[in-house]
Amino acid sequence: MIEFKADCGHTVRAKDEDAGKVVRCAYCGREAQVPQEDQDELDFLFGEISSESSAAAPSPKTARRARKTDRAGMPFGPSRTTVDPFAVVKKMAYVAAVLICVIFVGKKYAWPMFSQAFLDGGKPTSAISPPAVTKRPSRNTGDAGKPTASSRTSGFLPKDLAALGPGQGVYVDAIPERVTVYYREEDASTKKLDWLLSPDVTRLETPGLAELDPGTYVFVAALPINDKQLMRKYGKGYGYKETRGDAEDEKDQRDKDKIIDGYFRPDGATDVGVFQVRERPHIVRQYEVTVYSGEWSLLTPQFLPFRCTLAETMALVPDRKAYGFEEADVELELDYHSVKQRDRVNILSILRRIGTISYDPAEGRGGFRLFKIDPLSGELIAVQLPKGVHDGQSAPGES
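Above: the chain's sequence. Below: its structure in token form.
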């Protein structure tokens, strides 16, 4: 027995031998074609959907088959059928699987070709183009072609000289911090300090920056002999009060200068002494600095007592990280210059704070070397200082 649905929606029953023939629905009287027995379930499902959604008239071929069936005396009558819900669900699953495959294939392969065709002006593409490679932006090097402050790990860190742009000059950072610095281009008149008395003399407060044309300049760092920084820090523990008294009582200028020069640690100054500035005796330290085109340099005048150990010097300099460098490279240089192992930790710490310190590996018998960190590269530079009043002396704890 073959059961199928007519156009009106009712179930029609026909004999197996009537497969493919046309019969009449007992309910509505319309003709209906009996499906083949070997019709697969998916085709039958689509047939059911088509029969439920369409109420069109049968084709002429179907009508002819129906007339033949009528002549054969095919019985018609009302019938009832039971719908199997599991079969319906199974058929719907088949349909869902087909739709999923169609959507997946279309989205992955067909749609990119059509969408690219729209972007290309309606011209279809034969293949999917690979995504464009975005080039990483290069590191910002500034107008002068040098690294910016955020990228620096070596050299002078707080105020990056490389980021100052085109030009040249000197950045002065003194110890103690509040030191007045005077400067002018070197000539015959700078051999004496009388130019400090000029009303239009150029001066700056440390720390400070002097933008200069290329050439050689004289810088003078000055502190009043009664400066409260010196009196408070060095007055008792380091004998500054007595040194100041001896210098003020001395009548001979050379002896006065020698007393002051012998009290402070050497730092590369070409001359140290006492000079009257603005009606007050000042301790002055004089330096010669050559400014090269397109380069910035550092000058760090130091008013540090000679008779204090490196460990005590740590307490007299600002606790900051102003300089960066590769410690292993600096250690190699310190080893070459015979720096004692017990002094290296303190020297490394002082170099990070102020970038420079003088050291006598022969403990007062071989002269001082000035160690300083290059402001741009962070490398250690060692300068042999000329012998002076400190030769033959040694600081406590360094013997």
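The first strand starts at residue 2 and ends at 5.
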